[in-house]
Specification:
CATH class of the largest domain: Mainly Beta
Strand content: 15-25%
Number of helices: 13
Largest sheet: 9 strands, antiparallel
Distance between the termini: 50 Å
Number of strands: 25
Radius of gyration: 25 Å
CATH superfamily of the largest domain: Electron Transport, Fmn-binding Protein, Chain A
């Protein structure tokens, strides 16, 4: 069964030794971000900050970070054993992303214990850190669920999108038209109407795990499947949107289609480790805030480095692998053995025909996840460990001819935060997304140029010289201590 709310989830983490409370007074202006960066770099625990400068008393005094910042915590969030492997998590999500349990509507819930409207609205009453020194402002939307509905079909979307406090009742947002809520917004623009938005902060950890992935269908139904029980939803105060009844905080508002209402949003330190540019972007005009008594805010520090992969990137990895694998299945691509998603997406196949790798890349590039992923796709065969980059490099060195095996797919939609693009091609409002090119590296053995050879035991490549005879291995294993080498 799922966690009834964020408090039960945090209690579980604390009982497992996966959460620490920070009772020392810390400053929201840079100090919290540096603490989080150092803890993430050491793969440390989740943190509940309980004593924040300027927030010792008031509407919200606590900040929770790092809830799904490790494989163990992701396993616990999904109701799996703490020791669940990467493969266990990926296959669980592949199964659950195809299932659904419809939510149920309730009339009461703790998220409505406090209702704030009109002149009482002040976003600065929440302990939102300055996450990076050059951020354009304090980013309130870093780890949350943004709820919208299609004005024509009523289809619901719950996504994870960044947002910066512009004023006490305004949030500037990075709204990419090619993303799901961007499609909803485009329809509202065509109708000449503002789009209602509800932002959910801190609930069952499946909220952000699902919201950060391009799942098919209603995200609340998928969350129900993962939780093994329905999500309890309540109507918002100012729109027909629905939100979890036991969430800590919900912000309700409208995004106007009028370009004159757009305000400067950014820069922001993104998952790539670089700052995303500032532009005039849409704004959520906040009409209402509801929250629990003694509510706990939720956020994360973005920003990728070798030592410190952001919580959102880490948490999103498993869902991205599951969805990528399923995109290949939906497209009918056979022989897929494993998938690794990252700056380069690596797919392991049991090659069945020439052109197999091209079919892999085509299926990934056609999927909704390609708005943010799959700039470079590398396809390897079953003898390669895709979690060992040295082994992947060996496959590229062995099998890739640059003229024959590098395929460029130019002028397509994709990540608008890709810093390899020009300023103009990163303009998501002009192009609907980033305007990028993609690359396939076909590192599978080319059958035409490498037919099976009798002298190689009917294999397509010469025998590898890195393996010893089994009897020699056994001999050395038995005598290893005698050698006194190490």
């Amino acid at each position: 069964m799922g966690y009834k709310d964020a408090r039960e989830w945090m209690a579980k983490l604390e009982s497992e030794g996966e959460l620490k409370r920070c009772k020392s007074k810390v400053d929201w202006d840079g100090e919290i971000a540096e603490i989080v960066l150092r803890v993430v770099s050491k793969r440390g625990p989740a943190i509940l900050f309980e004593n924040i400068k300027d927030y010792e008393a008031g509407r919200c005094t606590k900040l929770f970070v790092g809830g799904v910042g490790s494989r163990k915590r992701i396993a616990l969030a999904l109701g799996l054993p703490k020791e669940a492997s990467r493969e266990d998590i990926v296959q669980f999500l592949r199964k659950k992303f195809k299932e659904s349990i419809k939510p149920v509507m309730v009339d009461k819930g703790p998220v409505k214990e406090n209702i704030v409207k009109g002149g009482d609205i002040n976003l600065f009453e929440f302990p939102v850190p300055l996450w990076h020194s050059k951020d354009g402002g304090r980013y309130i939307n870093t780890y949350c669920g943004v709820v919208t509905k299609d004005p024509e079909t009523g289809e619901r979307n719950v996504g994870l999108y960044r947002g910066m406090i512009v004023s006490k009742d305004e949030i500037g947002v990075f709204l990419v038209p090619a993303q799901h809520w961007g499609v909803h917004y485009s329809k509202y623009k065509a109708l000449g109407k503002p789009m209602p938005v509800a932002i959910v902060y801190n609930w069952d950890p499946v909220l952000e795990l699902v919201a950060s992935n391009s799942v098919r269908g209603d995200e609340f139904e998928v969350m129900g499947a993962i939780r093994r029980e329905p999500v309890e939803l309540m109507k918002c105060e100012t729109s027909d949107l629905e939100v979890p009844a036991s969430a800590e905080i919900v912000i309700e508002g409208l995004i106007s289609p009028d370009l004159k209402t757009y305000k400067l949003e950014g820069p922001f330190g993104e998952w790539s480790g670089y700052y995303g540019e500032a532009r005039k972007r849409p704004v959520i005009k906040v009409d209402c805030i509801t929250h629990r008594n003694d509510c706990i805010f939720r956020g994360q520090r973005e920003g990728l480095s070798v030592a410190a992969m952001g919580e959102g990137v880490y948490a999103g990895h498993y869902g991205q692998v599951a969805l990528s694998w399923d995109a290949l299945d939906v497209a009918g691509v056979p022989g897929v053995l494993d998938v690794r998603v990252g700056s380069t997406t690596i797919v392991k196949i049991r090659k069945m025909y020439e052109g197999h790798a091209k079919r892999v890349a085509s299926a990934l590039w056609a999927s909704q996840s390609s708005v943010d992923l799959f700039k470079i796709v590398t396809v390897v065969e079953e003898d390669v460990d895709i979690n060992n980059l040295s082994d992947v490099e060996r496959a590229i060195m062995t099998n890739v001819d640059p003229v024959r095996d590098l395929v460029v797919f130019p002028n397509t939609f994709g990540p608008s935060l890709d810093v390899s693009l020009s300023w103009e091609n990163r303009d998501e409002l002009a192009f609907g997304s980033g305007n990028i090119s993609r690359l396939l590296i076909d590192a599978a053995v080319n059958w035409k140029d490498h037919p099976p050879r009798k002298e190689w035991e009917n294999k397509r490549l010469p025998p590898r010289c890195t393996e010893s005879l089994p009897e020699i291995k056994d001999l050395v294993d038995k005598r290893w201590k005698e050698y006194e080498i190490v």
